[in-house]
Amino acid sequence: MSADLPHHTTASRATGRAGDASPFALGLLLRRAHWRAAAVMTEALRPLGIELRHFAVLIVLVDRGPTVQRDLAAATGTDKAGIMRVVDDLERKGLVVRKAVPGDRRVRAVEITPQGLELFDAAHVAAEPLAERLVGELGSDEAERLKDLLTRFAYPAEGGA
Fold first, then answer.
1. Model confidence, pTM
2. Mean pLDDT value of segment 64-70
3. Any idea what the Cα angle at residue 99 is, between residues 112 and 45, rounded to 5°?
4. Angle in degrees, CA 52, 82, 116, rounded to 5
5. CB neighbours of residue 67 within 10 Å
6. What's residue 29's pLDDT?
7. Closest by alpha carbon to 49, among 132, 98, 116?
8. 108-111: long-range contacts (C-beta < 8 A, 24 or more apart)?
9. Does the CA dihedral 137-39-127-69 come out positive or negative?
10. What's the pLDDT at 4?
11. 12 phi and psi angles, rounded to 5 deg
């Protein structure tokens, strides 16, 4: 295996620190930013009895309406078994229901309940001060710019990577 590796080393090593010139630096910074944001949002959701994986599904359901599990899995980056567990959890809590899809007896659409919508709204109220703390070191224009850049990065135009 070592024969396949170049014999020279580069001075650019990925550390995740600001100013790192490694091609891995951006990915490491995004990963660290994700960990930090996830920790803050987990703190907001904990008193409500749900986790980020649950809330991700609620977001999709509020945005799209009733959605089949296959599409929920794709939208949340979850595998088939994982999405089944999340939907099972949400259903046990009374936050979603599964309903038959007309024309296909095998497929069930997941729909948010009124209780799920209440929790969704409560989560936003709980998260607001924590979200402000998350970007507290940025100016308001910087926070908006960061959000814009990350949106464009996460959802590139047609033909993007």
1. 0.77
2. 94
3. 25
4. 45
5. 20
6. 87
7. 116
8. 108/68, 108/69, 109/66, 109/67, 109/68, 110/57, 110/61, 110/66, 110/67, 110/68, 110/69, 110/72, 111/61, 111/65, 111/66
9. positive
10. 63
11. -90, 105
